[in-house]
């Protein structure tokens, strides 16, 4: 009898404290690509610090559980994709100001993203988030480190039970897809980024 009480107590502890579930924010790249672009001859780079790339974020899911994800690692290819819509060549840089590629590849702009996220769920019984928000800021620097352009956009994603039963990350993917699509359009329409 005492063993049953111990097992039940442990089970209740797990239920009360909840769990953390891994998801991904990686958007559908085919959706954020645009066929209606005219590329410039400009080469650009992007820089994401190792600390940002390895940052794991936890935010609320449903049923008292949390979700975890890697915002920068999950969306790095999306950043490269939207930059490649306008610019000739896009290079990942190891440093914003000291990378030999900047000079060797004649890089005119260096882009650096900042990502903030939030999530929530309307469900008390399922853990995947029904709502997800991505705030994406992109800053462009000149090779000498001067900020020359900055935009912030927000993408919101929603997924009902029927949506996320096929993909637990659906609301996060929808939010990042929207944020990167809006940012793509800001970059394409910018007169500063030529």
Question: What does this 3D model show about the protein?
Answer:
- Strand 7 (131-141) and strand 8 form a beta hairpin.
- This protein has seven helices and eight strands.
- Residues 8-17 have low confidence and may be disordered.
- The chain has 194 residues and is α/β, with parallel strands linked by helices.
- The chain is elongated, with a radius of gyration of 20 Å.
- Helix 4 runs parallel beside helix 7 (170-189).
Ordered list of secondary-structure elements with their pairings:
Layout (H helix, E strand, L loop, with lengths): L1 H16 L2 E3 L6 H4 L10 E5 L2 H4 L3 E4 L5 E4 L1 H14 L4 E5 L6 H5 L2 E14 L10 E11 L5 E12 L2 H4 L5 H20 L5
Parallel strand pairs: 1-4, 2-5, 2-6
Antiparallel strand pairs: 3-4, 6-7, 7-8
Helix pairs in contact: 4-7
Structure summarized in a few sentences:
This protein is α/β, with parallel strands linked by helices and 194 residues long. Helices cover 35% and strands 30% of the residues.
Q: Which runs of at least 5 residues are low in confidence (pLDDT < 50)?
A: 8-17
Q: Could you say what the CATH topology is called?
A: Rossmann fold
Mean pLDDT: 90
Structural class: alpha/beta
Strand element count: 8
Strand content: 25-35%
Specify the helix fraction band: 25-40%
In total, how many domains does the architecture comprise? 1
Strand order of the largest sheet: 5-2-6-7-8
The string of secondary-structure elements, in order, is HEHEHEEHEHEEEHH
Number of helices: 7
Distance between the termini: 75 Å
CATH class: Alpha Beta
